[in-house]
Amino acid sequence: MAHSVRRDDPGANSRVRWLDTITGLGLSRPSRFLMRTILWGALIGVLAAYGLNANAAGPAPVVLLHGATAFDDALEDGVVTALNRSRSEFPGIQYFAISDARQTDSWIIASVVGLAGPDPRFGWSLEDGLWFGVVLLKQDSAHYATGEVQGTGSFSELLKQVPDNILDAQAKQSLDRSPSDASAAGGGYVFPWQAGASMFYGQLGVHDNGFGGIVSGWKAVDMASDGNAAAGHAPNHLLAAASGSITYKCYDGTSVAVRLGDFFYTHLTDNPNLYVGRTFGKTEELGQLLPGTFNGSCGWTNQSDNWFHVHWGFPNADLLVESWTLSMATQNWIDGTTTISPGDGWIQAAGQSPVHQPAASDFDGDDVSDIAYFRESMGLWAILKSSQNFAYGSPLFFNWGQPDDIAVPGDYDGDDLWDPAVRRPPRGGQSTAYLILKSSAGYDYGSPLVIPAGWPGLGDIPVPGDYNGDGITEPAIWRGNMGVWIVPLSPSFGSYQFYSWGTTGDTPVGADVDGDGWTDIGYWRPSTGVWGFLQSSAGYSYGSPLYFSWGTTGDIAVMADYDGDCKADPAVVIPPTGGQSRAYRILPSSMSYSPGSSLTIPAGWPGLGDTPVPADYDGDGKADAAVWRASTGVWIIPKSSVNNNVYIFASWGAAGDQPAH
């Protein structure tokens, strides 16, 4: 709908009511808007030809254009009324658009842009903005919304009435000023990405930030990454470089741009934490950046599918970040004797980065997961190598194992190559055993590694992992009837550590939840949905456990690092419900384990033999929510590097095989 009315302005209403009558019959809202603006333009032209002024009684009424997101009539009418009442704040601007709005209880905060000509009705972006600001509205019991425009005294008075649980004191202080006020570049800032990781300084160097009506004269740099954690490149998690509140947001249905305190951040994906009035602490995560090429009203870029970057804006002055200075004169980042020019290098954020865990199922040593199965009936291991783009013409084959063995591959010799390994049932009075074919020994069948693996009758379950941080997989077990972990320590596997953690009915989980590169000792209790971990960073102390609540009876635990922050995320596969398939439900550590920021990804159908096989198959440092379809032998892998919208498909294996991951 194109609004050009003000409820308390009869003259404005009479000027456009006949247009509403002509254009409102049998047309969609966009069509009515287009017809109305065409007719209004024609009317102005006719009147001008006769020397008449359509707006002789005052400035032309506000025309509210369509944004990418639809808003209800009450909100739009309230915004138009407030804008018409505050025309002195933006003289000469007639066309406006709502770029984002959020309602909490009866309060609505709308981000609004005033647009330049010659005719923004036929496509607009934030680059066309002449004025940017916020309209604060209060909705009554009849859903009628009245509001005020940022920068006015009446806005300040209305802002005081907003409850603190909707806007805290810092947010109110940030909003209660002219929307174009600019902070001076200060210090104490951090780079807006993970500590210890690096982003690439873009070739455009220091360039205009844009959004001049919000931040006049500001500059920006582009900082980019491909998310390759193994190379020390920053994962896709944008952090706040300084504390502050969001005072403007643009969302066009594709990407998000926000002003937050002293900075502007562009090219984010939308999430529930990005709204006007939301206050962030320094280093708190804002969300993820949109990878690949896109074009929208709130931002555009042209980059490879697995790359992402932040268009990072700031006032036009030398910028001090950590130990670095960005010179406006030279456009170089300088740290002592180190100089990084545009397009010439990576900049590492200060601090200690979480330790990257090598990719699971990596049999070829490229730190990307391979597609593999174990056929116990033949003792056959068959592997499609990621280093060969999973080509059918370049597989790896091993003969290791026999019927009734269970695949338990891992890097048991610390050479960064996964080893074929099986857990063999008890025979001849001997316990269950790990039988490992070592890559470091050239896969010599005569030199296997054999390690006891307990007794099935005691509920012993294999939980291989790196429990001492030396890069070697330990063949650990969890004794279900006692809740005891038994960990033979590498490299000799001759000494043991014992931990009492969990109870009968729990699912043992070995995963790195604290980001130190060691496997933590954990359980998932389906009956309550509780995950409990002894953290290696705390010496597996019983006094420093970590707990989460996620999932329920009937779910399958599939913990892995799905967000690339080097910390494993609680995750389950839930059964089909309401005609929908099974689904991965993931609680990202990078979003502070907030249920409101959980991820849901389809996980196939049990009737087709779909088995979850999460691992990093696209090399972006994040586990992909993959499934293996036993009925057809097909691997279905949504690539996390492109928001799970592009798939890898591979036909590899058959019914009865065990996926080796």
- Outline type: elongated
Low-confidence stretches: 1-34, 182-186
Number of helices: 5
Which oligomerization state do the chains in this entry correspond to? single chain
Share of helix, binned: under 10%
Instruction: Indicate the mean pLDDT.
Output: 86
The biggest sheet amounts to: 9 strands, antiparallel
Count of DSSP strands: 46
Rg over CA atoms: 30 Å
Distance between termini? Answer: 53 Å
Which structural category fits the helices and strands? Answer: mainly beta
* Beta content: 25-35%
Structure, explained:
With 661 residues, the chain is mainly β. Strands 6, 7, 8, 10, 11, 12, 13, 17 and 22 form a nine-stranded antiparallel sheet that branches. Strands 1-2-3-4-5 form a five-stranded mixed sheet. A four-stranded antiparallel sheet has the order 18-19-20-21, with no helix packed on it. Helix 1 packs across helix 2. The two termini are 53 Å apart.
